[in-house]
Write a structure and sequence with these properties.
heterodimer; A: 289 residues; mainly alpha; two-stranded antiparallel ribbon; 11 helices; globular; B: 407 residues; alpha/beta; 5-stranded parallel sheet; 14 strands; 42% helix
Chain lengths: 289, 407
C-alpha cells in the first residue's frame, strides 16, 4: 500500500515537471505582456516535431536537441511578439484572444497538412529503461525530463532576479507605465518574454519526445493542464505555476490510483474549484512575482 | 424510388451507360485507379468506398492499393469469362473518414455509375451508413467491418469475416494459451468503442473460464500511463487486454516495459495489426498479441497476394486490405456464376456462393458460404502475434502458422 502510494507520488511529480514547463511559459507571458497565449500547447507540438526530425534525420538525441529547439522557438517568440502581438496590444481583450486562438488553429491545421495525423515516436536507449529500487521504479526518460525542467525553471528564476533584463521584465510586469517612465522599452521586454516562454515550450517538446508520441493535436493535452496550473498558482506567478504543476501531477496520479483511471482529472479540477472558492486569486494569494 | 437500372429502352440505356462509363473513367483517372483500355466486352463496374483523406486516410490508402491489385489480378486472369471476358472496372470513391460524406459519396457513386457490387469502407461507423444507402439502392455491398449491427435487417450486405462478438471470444481463448489459469486485467478507453468491446469481454469471460481481476476504464489521450499500469501490477494479472487507440497503446506498452512487468499483452485489432504499429513501437511490439479477421500468412494464396503487395508498397498486406482482395474475388465469382452485371442478380449469386478454394475463399478457415443474415457461416477470427517485425498467425490451431511465444 505504502509502496503504491509512493510510486503514485513519484509518477505524479515526474509528469508535473513537464506541466510546469508549459505553465511557466503561459504565466510568464500573462504576467509580462498581459495576454493569454492559447497557442502555447502548439509550440510544445512544434518543439516535438523539431526534435523528431532532428532525431530521425540526423540521429540527434531528443533531449540534446534542446540546444536547437530552444533557440528556434525563442526566435519564433520574438517574431510573433514583434509582428503580431504588438499590433493588438492596448486595445480591448478580444483581438488578443482571437489572435492567439487563431494562431493555435493555424498551427494545428498546418501541421496536420505537413505531418499528417500519424503518431511519431522516437526511440532512444533510455526510452523504456527505468531505475529500480525497493520495488519502486523511476523511468529514465521522465527523470531526465523532470531534472532538466527543474534546471530550466531555476535558470529562469535567476535570470529574472539577477539580470537587468530580467529585472526590467519584472518591472514591466508590475507596472507598465512606471517601467516605461524608467526608460524600459516595453516592446523589447515583451519580445524577450515571448521568446523565453516559447523556448520553454520547445524544451518541453524536446523532453517529451523520448516517451510521448508527437501528433498535431498533442499540445492541447498539455495546455489544458497548464491553464489550470496557472490559475491555481496565481496568474503571472512563476513559482506558483511551478508548485501548482507539480501538485496537479501528483493529484492526477493519486486520483487515477485510488479513484479510477478515468477520474484522474476530476481530482485536479476539484482542486481548482476549491482553490477558486477559498482563495480566488490563487494559492500564492494574488502576488505576481 | 425509381429504378434506373430497368432497361426500358435499350438505346437510351446504352447512351446512359456510355455517359456513365465516361464519368467513371474520369473518376478512376482522378484517383489514379485502373487505366482504361480497349475492351472486347463491356467492363463491369464495381465500387470501392474508402477514406483516402481524413484521420483514417492511412489505412484507406492501403485499402485502395489492395483493391487495385485485386482487380488487376482478376483481369489478368482473363476477366469474367461468362461475360465474354469482361474486365472489372474499379471506381474508387473517397468517403473522407466522415459519416456525412460517406452518405453523400455512396449515394453519388451508386447514382452516377452502373455498379454491380461495392466493397468498403474499413471503419464500422462508415460502413453502417454506406450499407444503408446500398440497401436502399439494391446494390450488394461486401465488407470486412466487424460490427454485428451490419447483419441486422439487411439483404444486400455481406460480411465474409469474423464479427466483433467473435473477436472477444478469441481473445479470451488466447489468454488460456498463455496461462492455464488466466487472470486478465482489462483496461479500456471510456467512450463507445472501449466500453462496448470491454463489456463484451466481461460477459464472455466466465463461460471461457477466464477470471477478470481488473476492469478499468480510462480517459483516452492521457499524459502518463504509469498510474494505470501501477493498478495492473497491483491486480496480480498475468494477461493484459488493452482496448485502446494507438497513442495510448504506445504509452501502455512502453510503461509496462519500464515497470519491468512480465505480462502477456493483447491489443485486440484495428490499429494494432497494421505495419504502422511496429514502426511506432519497434522491438517492444515483439510478442504482443492481437486478433484479426485476416492475416497474410494464412494460406498459399494469401502469401502470394502479400508478396505482390509488398513488392509494390514495401509493407505487408494488412488485415483489412487482404480481406478486401478476397471480397473482390467473391464478387468476380458471383459475376461468373450469374453471367449478368445486374446488381440484383449479383446479390443473389453472392448469397448462393459456396466456395472452398481459390482467392475467393481466402479467409480464416478457407470457406465462404453466407447465411440468411449475410454472415459467412464459417467465419472466425485469427489470433496473431508480432514476431520478428511481422504479424504471425498463432491461433486457433488450424490457422496457426507459428507457435505462440510466451512472454
Amino acid at each position: 500500500m505504502l509502496e503504491t502510494l509512493v510510486q503514485a507520488v513519484i509518477n505524479g511529480l515526474l509528469i508535473g515537471g513537464i506541466y510546469a514547463l508549459v505553465s511557466i511559459g503561459v504565466t510568464l507571458i500573462f504576467g509580462v505582456v498581459k495576454i493569454v497565449n492559447f497557442a502555447q500547447g502548439e509550440f510544445v507540438m512544434i518543439g516535438m516535431y523539431l526534435s523528431f526530425f532532428l532525431a530521425t534525420q540526423f540521429g540527434i538525441d531528443p533531449v540534446l536537441s534542446l540546444v536547437v529547439t530552444m533557440p528556434v522557438l525563442f526566435v519564433m517568440g520574438v517574431a510573433i511578439q514583434h509582428f503580431l502581438i504588438r499590433r493588438v496590444l492596448g486595445q480591448n481583450d478580444m483581438p488578443q484572444i482571437f489572435l492567439t486562438f487563431a494562431l493555435s488553429l493555424l498551427l494545428v491545421n498546418l501541421s496536420l497538412l505537413l505531418f499528417t495525423a500519424n503518431y511519431r515516436t522516437v526511440h532512444t536507449w533510455y526510452s523504456d529503461e527505468a531505475l529500480h529500487f525497493n520495488g519502486l521504479y523511476i523511468p529514465l526518460a521522465k527523470l531526465f525530463a523532470f531534472a532538466l525542467a527543474m534546471v530550466l525553471s531555476a535558470a529562469l528564476w535567476v535570470f529574472l532576479h539577477a539580470t537587468d533584463l530580467g529585472k526590467a521584465m519584472r518591472a514591466a510586469a508590475q507596472n507598465r507605465e512606471v517601467a516605461m517612465l524608467m526608460g524600459i522599452n516595453p516592446n523589447r521586454v515583451f519580445c524577450v518574454a515571448l521568446g523565453v516562454a516559447l523556448a520553454l515550450a520547445g524544451a518541453a517538446g524536446s523532453l517529451l519526445m523520448p516517451f510521448y508520441p508527437a501528433y498535431p493535436l498533442v499540445g492541447q493535452v498539455f495546455v489544458l493542464m497548464a491553464f489550470v496550473a496557472v490559475v491555481l498558482g496565481t496568474l503571472g506567478n512563476i513559482l506558483g505555476a511551478l508548485v501548482a504543476s507539480l501538485m496537479m501531477g501528483v493529484a492526477e496520479s493519486l486520483g487515477i490510483q485510488f479513484i479510477g483511471a478515468d477520474s484522474g482529472l476530476i481530482v485536479v479540477f476539484l482542486m481548482l474549484l476549491l482553490t477558486l472558492a477559498v482563495r480566488p486569486s490563487g494559492l500564492a494569494g494574488g502576488r505576481a512575482r | 424510388m425509381r429504378n434506373t437500372r430497368d432497361p426500358k429502352s435499350k438505346r437510351k440505356t446504352r447512351r446512359e451507360f456510355l455517359i456513365k462509363t465516361a464519368g467513371g473513367a474520369l473518376a478512376a483517372g482522378a484517383f489514379g485507379a485502373y487505366p482504361m483500355r480497349g475492351y472486347a466486352a463491356d467492363p463491369v463496374n464495381i465500387g470501392g468506398l474508402y477514406p483516402v483523406t481524413g484521420n483514417l486516410a492511412q489505412i484507406g490508402v492501403g485499402c485502395v492499393n489492395a483493391a487495385k491489385l485485386a482487380v488487376e489480378m482478376v483481369n489478368d486472369a482473363g476477366g469474367i469469362k461468362s461475360l465474354g471476358g469482361a474486365k472489372l472496372n474499379l471506381i474508387i470513391s473517397d468517403v473522407q473518414s466522415d459519416t456525412t460524406v460517406t452518405r453523400t459519396e455512396t449515394d453519388r457513386l451508386i447514382s452516377d455509375n452502373k455498379l454491380s457490387a461495392i466493397h468498403g469502407c474499413f471503419a464500422s461507423a462508415l460502413t453502417l451508413i454506406a450499407s444503408e444507402v446500398a440497401e436502399r439502392a439494391k446494390v450488394p455491398l461486401l465488407t470486412g467491418s466487424s460490427s454485428d449491427q451490419l447483419n441486422k435487417g439487411r439483404r444486400f450486405t455481406f460480411t465474409p469475416f469474423a464479427r466483433a462478438s467473435q473477436f472477444a471470444e478469441a481473445q479470451l481463448q488466447m489468454a488460456k494459451l498463455v496461462d492455464e489459469k488466466p487472470k486478465v486485467a482489462v483496461v479500456f478507453e471510456n467512450t463507445a468503442f472501449g466500453t462496448s468491446t470491454s463489456n463484451g469481454l466481461r460477459e464472455l469471460a466466465p463461460a471461457q473460464g477466464v477470471e477478470i481481476v481488473l476492469f478499468e476504464p480510462y480517459s483516452a489521450g492521457f499524459t502518463d500511463a504509469s498510474p494505470l499500469i501501477n493498478k495492473v501490477k497491483a491486480s496480480g494479472a498475468n494477461a493484459l487486454f488493452s482496448v485502446s487507440y494507438l497513442n495510448d497503446l504506445i504509452l501502455i506498452v512502453r510503461t509496462v516495459k519500464q515497470v519491468g512487468l512480465t505480462i502477456a499483452i493483447n491489443g485486440g485489432s484495428g490499429g494494432f495489426v497494421i505495419p504502422d504499429f511496429y514502426k511506432n513501437v519497434g522491438k517492444l511490439a515483439e510478442g504482443l498479441q492481437g486478433v484479426a479477421h485476416w492475416n497474410h500468412d494464412m494460406d498459399d494464396d494469401a502469401q502470394k497476394v502479400n508478396a505482390e503487395y509488398k513488392k509494390r508498397t514495401g509493407e505487408f498486406l494488412f488485415e483489412y486490405a487482404g480481406g478486401l482482395v478476397a471480397q473482390t474475388f467473391m464478387i468476380a465469382e458471383a459475376l461468373e456464376r450469374t453471367g449478368s452485371t445486374d446488381p440484383q442478380k449479383v446479390r443473389d449469386a453472392i448469397a448462393a456462393l459456396d466456395v472452398s478454394s481459390g482467392y475467393a475463399a481466402m479467409c480464416p478457415g478457407g470457406k465462404v458460404k453466407f447465411g440468411p443474415d449475410g454472415k459467412n457461416i464459417y467465419a472466425h477470427p485469427v489470433g496473431v502475434q508480432w514476431q520478428n517485425g511481422d504479424l504471425a498467425s498463432v491461433f486457433p490451431q488450424a490457422d496457426a502458422r507459428a507457435p505462440l511465444i510466451k512472454t
